[in-house]
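Late entry, evening session. Most of the bench is empty. Finally got around to the prediction I had been postponing all week. Sequence below, unchanged from the version circulated by S.P.
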Amino acid sequence: MLKKTAFLFLVLLTSIPSWASFILLPMDEASQKNHLKAYGITYWSLDKHYKVSWLLNYRGGSFLLPDAPEIRKECQIRGVSFELLSDGQANQILDEISSPSQNMETVVLEKAPKIAVYTPKGKQPWDDAVTLVLTYAEIPFTAVYDEEVLADGLLLYDWLHLHHEDFTGQYGKFFGAYRNAPWYIEQKKDAEELAKKLGYSKVSEEKLAVAKKIRDFVIGGGFMFAMCSATDSFDIALAADGVDICEPMFDGDESEANYQAKIKYENSFAFKDYILEKNPIIYEFSDIDMTLKRNIMPEKDYFTLMEYSAKWDPIPSMLCQNHTQLVKGFMGQTTSFDSNRIKSSVLVMGENKVNNEARYIHGTKGKGMFTYFGGHDPEDYQHRVGDAPTVLDLHPNSPGYRLILNNVLFPAARKKKLKT
């Protein structure tokens, strides 16, 4: 009798997958063991030409995939929670999502986007939050830098991340604290040699040329994501086109007289009316950044994600998918953005109203789009030069890192017009 019961149980267990037609990757807080690697499974499935649907606002922004043995196996290997659904169960979920009374939407993901990360040669994955999480989630990317960008190499990619770069030619404004540090001296030397190799007399001129190529990539339909100092330094470089804002320790000659009055804010993607920081000793580019103006204790440093209509505004809804609306803050050279310095055409998707600062913003430029995310590392509150790398195995459900990965998958979506 015992053998018969065991046999029937085995038959039942092995027959369960036969009725399954779909795999659901739940993305709510309670059900998913590893949110970050779930994005990797989704990307992997797209790369294998499986049809994937992103269920906006359904259980934290879950993913619906076709049932296939290799997808199940990949989930098991990577430690990603999944649920098997029959046709009837999947249709019931899709019917619920399509109801006008529900703030949900189904977005079809069409193809795995080709990803480029703008980063200097020799940088390790943990030097940058995006390369760190892409590596952890097992999402492939290609590192590119100035030579590839200036040779129009961005035409091969759909999505570009800007490493924590200084596009103004001021070497990250590290002069005050690190001018005698061997790594600073070496980086400055390397940058000058590269600029000369590429035919430019100054690093600031070469970085401006790179910034313009990136601008053209976005205008032509590309997706750009930037964090920390790459956000404001990119905007400032474009606005300072033709104006020397660098002091002698950066480029060997004096800055241009009255250069603040010559800044062309209309050239910036996201920011307006900002005042540049002229003191080379101060670790700031301008008053866009809120780092020195903040009065928030670390234990109270959170920002709130905005809620959008998934049916009418699928773009910001995709970018804000998460298992929580309250995200722990974190610092960087550019920690957050002064709300008064953000153009009216730019969408604020995450903010701390108490401090009048935006943390997460999005906009369009030509046929393309860009997203800026303030701060350096979502799971390292005050990352400093030389600090140990973040171990993402300790943070597999990080809401801050989820926002980065939303942007990675975003270009895969079938496009709908933004209503907001």
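Two things to note before I forget:
Residues 1-16 have pLDDT under 50 and may be disordered.
The first strand starts at residue 22 and ends at 25.
Will write this up properly tomorrow.
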